[in-house]
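Hello, quick one for you while I still have it in my head. A protein chain has come my way and I'm curious about its shape. Can you walk me through what the tokens say about the fold? No rush at all, and the record is pasted right below.
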Amino acid sequence: MARTLFDKVWDAHKVADLPGGGELLFIDRHLVHEVTSPQAFDGLREQGRNVRRPDLTFATVDHNVPTDGRPIDEDSLSGKQLSALDRNCKEFGVPLFGYNDPRQGIVHVIGPQLGLTLPGLTIVCGDSHTSTHGAFGALAFGIGTTEVEHVLATQTLRAAKRPKTLGVQVDGALQAGVTAKDIILAIIRKLGAGGGTGYGVEYFGEAIRALAMSGRMTVCNMSIEMGARAGLVAPDATTLEYIAAEERPYAPKGADLDRLADYAAGLKTDASDAYDRLETLDASTLAPQVSWGTTPAMTIDVDGAVPEPKDAGEERAQKYMGLTPGTPTSAMDVNTVFIGSCTNARIEDLREAAGLAKGRRVKEGVRAMVVPGSAAVRELAEKEGLDTVFKDAGFEWHRAGCSMCLGMNGDILRPGQRSASTSNRPYEGRQGPGSRTHLVSPLTAVATAVAGHIADPRDLLSS
């Protein structure tokens, strides 16, 4: 019987069938951060347990770290969380990439960057956007704090039910100004906020193969925003070239890399009829996308207008966002532009954004900020002079962290303020109480910062 990539990785990690249903999976990588781990470590401590495989567990600080350079207040929530993670990692022997460590960064940026993320692995983290790592042909998904404790103690995960499989075929060449972020927003727009619920999604086709690893990670990152359990892309030469880069200390080298390449060659779906469901998208017709509502499914073309509401949910979203049907995107003035998050804060994202920002200026009255996804991304960007480009254009240049993706760390909007954000969720209050968030690509973010309202990057590319 033909099998999907998802099924092959799942089957390779199945330890046992569980009484009453479900399966037990072995976990190859457990990624930990400061927000969802304290209770899990406390649970181990209370029951006298150790971390089963500290060599397969890696911790970093990202969600609640300040990115504006201010010192950490030890009595603040951030300070207490960082201290707790440091204490827990030392006690249980878990490697930690702390606040001043050159390897620190957003967990879903540093995993691939350090070579921890590899084809065919199972990867979990107490964070919903763990699906990012599926870009390498890994089976990666977020877990809750109770599950974090279970993985720490056993290096296994109880899976109540094996998801179905959904293939999303994306063909056609992207037009100038259209990016991977626009692909995934268009997919979620088409399938809906619950369109992937109960599925592991594999993205394939001409447009996906043409993406660099950074773009594939962006696509897989937002799989969770349509309810999917995981998102995957089959590994290929692009994947292996990324892994083989010298700066990935945890990646296999030499003969080990050759063996990985041989294994990865078999990590592909046998036939399209192996999926439980198949969807398609023509990337050649896409325009840059922008979300107008409170889920990524509420998305329109960048030169479009707010639609008539289809249901009570859309009516509520329009009221919350302060918009009415027929409002064009060009009438959506913004207070803040945020380039960052585990969706779009890799060096490739910053290079692309800086290329459009060079020689231009942020509109007066707009706060624009760039937050690199890791300390290493920040260092490389500064070596390339990207920080100077951004600062000359009027952008703030920050330290690495999750920052304004979520209203947790001081980088927040005030009630009623509107942002154009390269993050992944425009939920009510996500960027601060009463905040209004429009999801965009890095290119659209730059165009918006320059115009002071949601703007089409193609206009700047052609000028």
User: Anything to note?
Assistant: Residues 205 and 211 are 10 Å apart (CA to CA). The radius of gyration is 21 Å. The chain has a mean pLDDT of 96. DSSP finds 16 helices and 19 strands in the chain.
